[in-house]
Specification:
This protein is mostly helical. It has 3 domains: about 35 residues, no CATH class; about 140 residues, no CATH class; about 55 residues. The chain is built from 9 helices and 4 strands. A two-stranded antiparallel ribbon has the order 1-4. Strands 2-3 form a two-stranded antiparallel sheet. Strand 2 and strand 3 form a beta hairpin. The longest helix is centred in the N-terminal third of the chain and has 33 residues. The N and C termini lie far apart (about 55 Å).
Length: about 220
């Protein structure tokens, strides 16, 4: 396929940097713009930073899991909780969030037929409450639900709802009385969203799990 690159009529600017456009000499089809060498190098630097941070997050989670599982903390402290609290200065919820998110990522990474893998902690966090045996299906459902759109944490949460473990015991008194209760579900979901943002800001996994369970109940009520 013959190609021609033009930097005049078919050129465009990105800030002050020129980005050239390539056209097919045979069909005249305009191909996607191509970054200049300077912009390509800048993109590479940015992606390197992102990948390093993502890799560090996973490595920290795996390291904490090793310290916990092999009782390595006993060289300094009596319990693992005492270790991460005094040695690392992080909250219990954040420490376990790192561990569980890394475990979910490793589980999904080992599956060959998953073309799209999680790219951030927020996506992984929504899969933690899902039973291990159902996480792959939950993630695949999220990918399908997103379609050509970005896979946000909200999409993963929505897709994961039907894969979470259900309580098989008797209905609570609140559930029995639900038919007689009338609330503004739209407002309730809006307030819940605000609470979730605050919990994510402070990385409190315990609260996030409780809020996820509450969202599941409210969304089920909306569907009815």
């Amino acid at each position: 396929m013959a190609k021609i690159t033009t930097a005049s009529a078919l050129a465009r600017k990105s800030g002050e940097k020129l980005v050239t456009t390539t056209i097919d000499a045979g069909t005249g089809e305009v191909l996607p713009p191509r970054l200049t060498k300077e912009l390509a190098e800048e993109l590479e630097r940015c992606e390197s930073v992102i990948k390093k941070g993502w890799g560090t997050f996973l490595e920290v989670g795996r390291a904490l899991a090793t310290i916990r599982d092999k009782d390595l903390f006993k060289g300094k402290y009596d319990t693992f909780d005492e270790y991460w609290r005094k040695e690392l200065g992080v909250s219990r919820s954040y420490a376990y969030s790192l561990i569980e998110s890394a475990e979910v990522n490793d589980q999904l990474s080992a599956i060959a037929d998953i073309p799209v893998k999680p790219l951030n902690e927020a996506q992984l966090r929504e899969l933690i409450p899902v039973p291990e045996a159902k996480r792959v299906d939950a993630w695949k459902s999220a990918v399908e639900l997103a379609g050509s759109n970005p896979i946000t944490a909200r999409i993963v949460r929505k897709a994961a709802v039907k894969f979470k473990a259900r309580n098989s015991g008797k209905k609570s008194k609140l559930a029995k009385k639900s038919a007689a209760v009338r609330i503004d579900l739209g407002l309730a979901l809006k307030l819940l969203g605000n609470a979730e943002k605050l919990a994510e800001q402070f990385k409190d996994m315990d609260i996030l799990k409780e809020l996820a369970a509450l969202r599941e109940l409210l969304e089920a009520a909306v569907e009815k």
